[in-house]
Amino acid sequence: MPCATISSVSTFRPWAVAGLLAGAAGLASSYAVAMGLTIRESPVVAVAELVVDLMPAPVVEWAIERLGRADKALLVGAILLVLAVLLALTGVLARRSWWAPTAVYVVLAGVGGYAVLAQRGAQSVDLVPVAVGLVTWLVALSLLTEPLRRALPARPGEAAARGPGEERGGTDTRRSFLLRAGLVGAAAVVLSAVGRGVGRGRRHVERTRRLLKLVGVTAPEVPPSARVGVAGVTGWMTPADDFYLIHTAIAVPTIEPADWRLRIHGLVEREIELSYRELISRQVSESWITLSCVSNEVGGSLVGNAWWSGVRLADLLAEAGVREGADAVLQTSADGWTCSTPLAALTDGRDAMLAVAMNGRPLPIDHGFPVRTIVPGLFGYVSATKWVVDLEVTRFADVEAFWTQRGWAEQGPVKTASRIDVPSDGAELPAGPTRVAGVAWAQHTGISAVEVALDGGAWQRAELAGTPSVDTWVQWAATVDLTPGEHRLRVRATDADGVVQTAVEAEPLPDGATGWHEVGFSASEG
Ligand SMILES: Nc1nc2c(c(=O)[nH]1)N[C@H]1C(S)=C(S)[C@@H](COP(=O)(O)O)O[C@H]1N2
Ligand SMILES: [Mo]
Questions:
Q1: Ligand 1 binding site (Cβ under 6 Å of any ligand atom)
Q2: Which residue, judged by its Cα, is nearest atom 18 of ligand 1?
Q3: How far is the CA of 384 from the centre of ligand 2 (A)?
Q4: How far is the CA of 373 from the centre of ligand 1 (A)?
Q5: 402 alpha carbon – ligand 1 mean position (Å)
């Protein structure tokens, strides 16, 4: 077999190609992850936006004037060109050392990360695409350069370690390089296509969502009595942007309302299929409902309160005609997630609805656009299906939903809970009379009392703010007299049936955490 060393392998070209391909793979993976995580733009675009921000205004104006709508594409193109040069350079640098290309990658990722964080409303998860891109660069570059490295002329002393017949370079090396280059190149192409698909869908749906005007949906008006008026207590209404997010979907479904259909079937007299237009042309009902997650720990923040607008499920189920023997509704979302909801909770007169709006605006995509279920009194995992597309009237005995298959309880009624927001754990306060405050919830039962106990002393009644119904949380406040030193404050609620929140501590699994929330803090002489 001819084993002539391939001369081109020892020149710079394949190294530059390796750098370019590894670079492309990293950019593509960061783009795909950004789109998948529903981050508005890729890190490269964030850098472009940062450049625009840093450029003197006259330059920007000149560019917009002269280049019109092409200005952004040109800027991104220029950035990609600079990147291409630097990325090819990483390949060439990899010929002599591993740390030089690594340093270039780290600097580039640093610039990307800085640009991402400079974006309006940036969060730390926005850095994930940058991190994924960096890791992809390192892995892809070492993968691609490994065959090239094998073909390098041996350094002094290294040759001795090589056994007979292990020639450097050769067709195997070349084949191996070409194969790897092909794989990395293909991965880059596939990842960009995926990112593009996901991103385009989302942008389009976001535009539709913004332009939607929903008849019968009104703006939220927080009842004036709902606020206790203590600084630092959680807002009674949770803005959509602050509302906790829980879902199993990696890339959230992006559904055009025009494509949305809901099927109601199973143990019914008449199957119903509804389009979005048909749904929103029905009577809209609206209410304040507090939603909480079964995974919420004692004192945790997986709970929020919003003004939901939608169509009552009881009416739809009555039209479908539920048959004898049914006791559950298996809900399925566009991403395949399922939950089984007690039929009774959907038909007993409470405000169980197919919600189309949250706080007076069409549901945010992440909270289930265009349609989700909301059922007061049940944890989200058994009731609050986002991107809901299918309701099967059935029997609990015949189905198993996503979380019940994984050991969580079949029935998920909420548990009475209370939380101290002020003071926060570890706070340092002035001694003397001090206002403490928080929230308590027992959706669809209601809260009748909240008590606090300082340093294991007697329970003291807190004042309760108002609520529009038993389906929302309630703010509470109390005044405690603090002596200088360390303190502990505890809270417990009593529901509207007179049942006191249990002190027994339980983990969230399988049906929700219990126990009293407690915070520790210190007071000092002012
Ligand atoms: N499609 C879908 N819907 C879902 C979930 C999910 O994973 N997928 N999680 C549920 C859980 S566990 C909770 S607590 C609520 C959270 O709703 P939010 O993200 O709007 O706060 O959604 C529920 N609906
Ligand atoms: Mo949840």
A1: 243-249, 291, 293, 333, 335, 337, 367, 380-381, 384-387
A2: 245
A3: 9
A4: 10
A5: 11
Which amino acid is located at 479 in the chain?
T
Tokens, residue 411: 């029935």
Pairing of strands 388-394, 261-266: parallel
Instruction: Give one DSSP letter per residue of 430-448, joined into a string.
Output: ESEEEEEEEEEE-TTT-EE
Phi and psi based region of residue 42 (left: phi greater than 0; alpha: psi -120 to 50; beta: remaining): beta
Q: Quote the Cα angle for 381-503-483, to 5°.
A: 120
Calpha distance 93→18 (Å, rounded):
11
Test site for ligand 1: of 243, 244, 247, most ligand atoms within 8 A of the Cβ = 247
The percent of residues above 70 in pLDDT, for the chain, comes to 92
Nearest to residue 292, comparing CAs of 282, 276, 300, 303? 303
- Per-residue CA distances from 197 to 178, 187, 261 (Å): 28, 15, 22
Query: What's the Cα-to-Cα distance from 15 to each of 10, 24, 369, rounded to whole Å?
Result: 9, 14, 47
User: 366-383, pLDDT tens digit by residue?
Assistant: 999 999 999 999 999 999
Which residues lie closer than 8 Å to 132 by C-beta, 6 or more apart?
29, 30, 33
Per the CB < 8 A criterion, the answer to whether 436 and 420 are in contact is: yes
Ligand nearest to the CA of 513: 2
Gap from CA of 292 to ligand 2 centroid (Å):
7
- The residue whose two tokens read 């994924």 is 132
Q: Which ligand is nearest to the CA of 337?
A: 1
Proximal ligand: closest to the CA of 380: 1
* pTM for this predicted structure: 0.76
- The answer on pLDDT for 162 being more than 60 is no
**What Rg do the C-alpha atoms of the chain give, in angstroms?**
30
Q: How far is CA 164 from CA 112, 159, 160, 228, in A?
A: 48, 10, 10, 84
| Tens digit of each residue's pLDDT (9 = 90 or more) over 466-505 | 999 999 999 999 999 999 999 999 999 999 999 999 999 9
The rounded distance, in Å, linking the Cα atoms of 179 and 191 is 18
Residue 406 CA to ligand 2 center (angstroms) comes to 13
Ligand nearest to the CA of 335: 1
Q: Nearest residue CA, atom 10 of ligand 1?
A: 381
Whether pLDDT at 4 is above 90: no
- Protein residue with its CA nearest to atom 12 in ligand 1: 381
Percent of the chain predicted with pLDDT > 90: 77
